[in-house]
Every structure is written in C-alpha cells, then in structure tokens.
Write a structure and sequence with these properties.
Blueprint (H helix, E strand, L loop, with lengths): L1 E8 L4 H10 L8 E3 L10 E7 L7 H13 L4 E5 L4 E3 L5 E3 L2 E2 L9 E4 L5 H6 L2 H12 L3 E4 L5 H6 L13 H5 L7 E7 L13 E7 L13 H7 L5 H34 L7 H20 L5 H8 L3 H7 L1 H20 L3
Parallel strand pairs: 1-2, 3-8, 4-7, 8-9
Antiparallel strand pairs: 1-3, 1-4, 5-6, 10-11
Helix pairs in contact: 8-12, 9-12
Length: about 350
C-alpha cells in the first residue's frame, strides 16, 4: 500500500506548507495543499493518505497514483500487507518500503487499488476490513479504484451512494431519463472472482440519478480562430495535413535507415570494445535517470521498488548497448570509405 502524508493550509497561508516541509523526516513527508482549516488559522492540519496494495493488484491503478502525487510534490511511502515484495496482477514484483503496521490508524484516508486477485485478497483480509470499517465509522475518507470497491460492498458502506456501474450496464441504460428505475440483466463472466456468481445471470435494480451529455464545439472557422493562429478551418486543415505528411515521411525515412544499418551490421564482423559497451550502458542509464526525474523518482528508487541491483540492470541493457555500438562502428567505417 502507498502511504502519503499530506499537510494542508488555508488560502494565503503558504508559510504553513514551508513549516511542514521543514518538519518532514525519513518516514513522514508533507505537501502544502490549499485545505482551509478555519478562522483560527494557527491550528495545524495534517491529512494522512494511505493506499494499500494486496497481492495481484492492478499495476497502473496503484503506481499511477504514486506517480501523479509525486509529480505534485508528495513523497509516497509504500507498504505491503504481509510482506515487503508484492506481485501485481501482471506479474510485476514491486518492493514496498515497509510491511503494514498499526501506524495506519493514525491516518485519515485509505485507498484500495483494484486488479485481480488483489481486490479479492483485500476484501477477504480481516485486517483490511477492520481498518476500512473503522475509518468509515470515524468519518475518515475511504476510497477504492475499479474492482477495489468490492470491499466496500461487503461492508455495506456504498449502500445508497453513487458508484461506478458494473461493465455491461451502459447499453441497457441508453434512452432512459433521470429518475427512471430500470432492471438491468447482466451475466457474470465464467472467470468472475466470486465463484457463486461466475457464469450466472443477475438482475440489478438501478435508478438513473442523472444524465449528462458531452458537448463538442462545431468544427468551423470560429473554432479555428479561437483555438489556433489560423483564420479559417481550411487553413487549419491544410497545416495539419502538411505536418502529418512530414511526420510520416520522416518516420519512414528513419525506419528505412535503421533497417539498412541493422542489415549491414548483421552481416558484418566487428569487434566491439568492452569499454565502448560500458560507456553506452552508462549513457542509457543516465537517460533512464533523467526520465525518472520527470516522474519525481531516481534510479536508486527504481531499483528499490523493483528489488533489483545495479549490476542486474546494466546486464539487462548489454544486448542493446552492443547492438548500438556495433551499428555506430559500421556507420563510421562506411562513412570513412565513402568519404562522407
């Protein structure tokens, strides 16, 4: 599970966020957010957010939350329920920072990611049920993504509340208006996680609370004027067409060049110096580190999260590095012989 400690401040109280930042330590981290905290102003508000990961959780639903929050300046501490290493529903092993402990009761928010069988594991875990129920009863925030709300369903805390519909509802709700009560017939898939429902037809009694329509602006000259530097839609279309054609041509040229280089390299015997391979791996890892920094991470954190060592990561990139070095040497040789 992901642990995010969020500090809030009222409008115009930026110094509160700075104070929280100074208070942060290796275990708890803070982000100043615009959370009003009353006229007294000086009362500190420390909002705590915890996102739990169960074995088999959906990778994107958990890690995207971490990525977005870190981009916003929040440092996330990850926790596994029973162990540090947690495997996602797509067999990606994530190494959490800590194992779940009683500190969770000091927090204000719990988020459950979805994914199978992770969502079922969370739902069937007595400790998770106890935590979610206690948070809910105390008026704290509980949230879940995708299949995660099945825990809430078991505990009865979504009764009478708006929730995302089960896939397959949409087609049977078309044409109905707000206030309509509809019977929706759904057949659960054979692989459904609840064995007593797998492959069986189910009838849901649904009330349509609201109907919303997506309004798209007309694609005309006014649209072109308002959103681009062009005066007419025809000019905008011509510009888009020219750019797409140029992109397609550049992509085709690059693909042809790469294919030729690959073919020549494959049929050429070249001794690839180990020093050049190691240098290329250094460059590849440096580029990877730059990309991670845009996500609020670094190479060391990636290694911790994935449970790998630096030597293992370098070895994974060796084949690509050797191929790139060999291609470079072949091109240099061709350029020298052709006086290019």
């Amino acid at each position: 599970m992901l642990t995010l400690i969020i500090g809030g401040s009222g409008s115009g109280k930026s110094s509160f966020g700075e104070e929280l930042a100074q208070k942060s330590n290796s275990k708890l981290y803070y982000l100043a957010t615009m959370i009003p905290y009353g006229d007294e102003g000086k009362r500190r508000v420390e909002r705590h957010l915890k996102l739990r990961k169960g074995k088999g959780f959906e990778t994107i639903e958990a890690l995207t939350s971490v990525d977005i929050l870190r981009r916003a300046g929040v440092t996330c501490t990850t926790f596994g329920i029973n162990e540090v290493e947690v495997t996602t529903s797509h067999s990606i092993t994530i190494r959490a920072d800590e194992v779940l402990n009683d500190e969770i009761y000091n927090y204000d928010v719990v988020i459950l990611p979805g994914g199978m069988p992770g969502a079922v594991n969370l739902r069937d875990n007595e400790k998770v049920n106890e935590i979610v129920k206690k948070f809910y009863d105390e008026g704290k925030i509980v949230a879940a993504i995708c299949a995660g709300p099945i825990t809430f369903g078991k505990l009865g805390i979504v009764n009478g509340k708006n929730a995302t519909c089960y896939p397959g509802f949409e087609d049977q709700l078309v044409g109905h208006n707000a206030g309509d009560e509809v019977e929706v017939n759904v057949t659960f898939p054979e692989t459904y996680h609840a064995e007593n429902l797998a492959g069986k037809p189910v009838v849901f009694n649904v009330k349509v609370n609201d109907v919303k329509v997506k309004e798209v602006p007309a694609l005309d000259d006014e649209f072109a004027k308002d959103t681009t530097e062009f005066e007419t839609l025809a000019e905008l279309r011509a510009d888009v067409k020219a750019k797409l054609e140029e992109q397609a041509k550049n992509a085709a040229d690059a693909e042809m060049r790469n294919a030729l280089v690959e073919k020549v390299s494959a049929n050429t015997e070249v001794e690839v110096p180990e020093a050049m391979v190691q240098h290329q791996i250094d460059n590849m890892l440096m580029e990877l580190n730059y990309q991670l920094q845009y996500q609020g991470l670094n190479l060391e954190q990636l290694l911790q999260m994935t449970g790998r060592g630096l030597d293992e990561l370098r070895e994974e990139r060796r084949a690509d590095a050797e191929r790139l070095v060999k291609s470079s040497l072949v091109l240099e040789d061709i350029a020298e012989k052709e006086n290019v």
